[in-house]
Amino acid sequence: MNRSDATAITCARVLITALADHPDHAFPPFASSDYERALIDFDTICGPQTPGLPALRPAGQASELYEQALNAITILGDLGILDGLQVELVLDVLDQAFNGPW
Question: H/E/C letters for each residue in 20-32?
């Protein structure tokens, strides 16, 4: 994994984590487990050598963070870090976490 791949993966992970922690979107109680699943799936797809998360947390509305996370994951596909199926799987899990069945 090169430095730009690691940076792109870290960006997507930070955005997913920020969504999970966002006070406007931390409802209902099972939503956090949906984001945990999204992060576990993302880490499984990206492999065990993904970099750790920095202390930095992006700010903004939950909907803005969601759109940024979608873009970051799409970029991972554009860069060839993830294949098309992996991109769709991560986007689907993130969509379920954000929009949920509630």
Answer: HHCCCCCCCCCHH
pTM of this structure: 0.78
Could you give the CA distance from residue 68 to residue 65 in angstroms, rounded to a whole number? 5
The distance from CA 86 to its chain's CA centroid, rounded to whole angstroms, is 12
**Residue-wise pLDDT tens digits, 42-65:** 888 887 666 666 656 677 788 888
Question: Among the residues of 22-83, which ranges form H helices?
Answer: 31-46, 62-78
Query: Residue 95 carries which DSSP code?
Result: H
Phi, psi of 31 (to 5 degrees): -65, -40
51 contacts 6 by C-beta, under 8 angstroms: yes
Amino acid at 50: T
- Name the residue ranges covered by the structural domains of the chain: 3-99
Tokens of 69: 């996370």
Rounded to an integer, what is the distance from CA 87 to the centroid of its chain? 11
